[in-house]
Amino acid sequence: MLKIAIQKSGRLYDDSLSLLKSCGLYVDNGMDQLKAEVRNFHAEVFFLRNSDIPQYLEDGVVDLAIIGENVLYEQNVGVEVLAKLGFSKCRLSIAFPKNMPFENIKSIEGKKIATSYPNSLKKYLEKEGISADIHLISGSVEIAPNIGLADAICDLVSSGSTLFKNGLEEKQIILKSEACLAANKTALSLKGEIIEELVFRIQSVLKARENRYILFNIPNSKINEASAVLPVLKSPTVLPLLDEGWSSLHSVIQVKDFWGVIRKLKNIGAQGILVIPVENMVI
Ligand code: PRP
Question: Which atom of ligand 1 is nearest to the CA of 139?
Fold first, then answer.
């Protein structure tokens, strides 16, 4: 039985569960459940506290985990990252109160910095040859400068709105992070086959999210021109229409290229452009 840990509550919870479900795993989860069986895959899902997950993973209590890279870095555990998952992107940054002068990173020399990430901050300061006083706080780090507990903070920033609300400014990024799939090293050899199957499904789902299926009608005389602007997997599928001289072109395009490609296709003479989400991509 493959044991997979995900966050029990917090930012990663929804996306983690939705990723597993998109991979075809039927997780029988309910409110406040610690463990749920997967009906159609030889696995169970454990809902754990974020900060406990790295240790459980290293100790082999669970085989796999969906966890933020920042937490793994902070706890420096011996686990293997199998894939980056593209969600819960954030950065661990040093932030100063708005009115506090900051010229460069040396400006934090001798300052008192509140953080829940003491190890990551310590590593960074050592690398930069800076000495500062690290003050460990387990939550609500952003209020520390306002209540006189610290001069500055080092905390996770995503949208930046928490910093803004507390009159702080992000000054120095020390780590970029996103959710990842991490594995216990022994599990990789003992349960390699089922882990490989899950990684394969996750990569197919992630690939699909980056792409869209596109189909449109085009005069036959323009097929080559239209094909040239499509960054296709192989070459587009061309199907004849009942209307003489017209065809339907089908292809897959990346979301990031989407609007540029649509504009070019319209200029070439494409009509009836349809764009459809892709559920899975096995290539
Ligand atoms: C993190 C972090 C900040 C906030 C920043 O907390 O500690 O408080 O997100 O996000 P923003 O830049 O979008 O405002 P989170 O809500 O993840 O919970 P935590 O306090 O348990 O870390």
Answer: 20
Residue type, 111: K
Same domain, 45 and 116: no
Specify the number of domains making up the chain: 3
CATH of the domain at 236: 3.30.70.120
What pTM did the predictor assign?
Answer: 0.88
Give 46 Cα–ligand 1 centroid separation in angstroms.
Answer: 23
Strands 43-48 and 2-7: parallel
Secondary structure (3-state) at 73? helix
Closest ligand 1 atom to 158 CA: 12
Index of the ligand 1 atom closest to the CA of residue 164:
14
**120 closest CA partner among 92, 144, 96:** 92
154 CA distance to ligand 1 centroid (A)? Answer: 12
* Segments forming the whole domain that contains residue 39: 2-88+178-207
Atom 1 of ligand 1 has which residue's CA nearest to it? 156
Q: Give me the tens of pLDDT residue by residue for the chain, a chain 283 residues long.
A: 999 999 998 899 999 999 999 999 999 877 778 999 999 999 999 999 999 999 999 999 999 999 999 999 999 999 999 999 999 999 999 999 999 999 988 999 999 999 999 999 999 999 999 999 999 999 899 999 999 999 999 999 999 999 999 999 999 999 999 999 999 999 999 999 999 999 999 999 999 999 999 999 999 999 999 999 887 667 889 999 999 999 999 999 999 888 999 999 999 999 999 999 998 888 7
CA 23 to ligand 1 center in whole angstroms: 28
Q: Is 241 helix (H, G, I), strand (E, B) or coil?
A: coil
Q: CATH number for the domain including 149?
A: 3.40.190.10
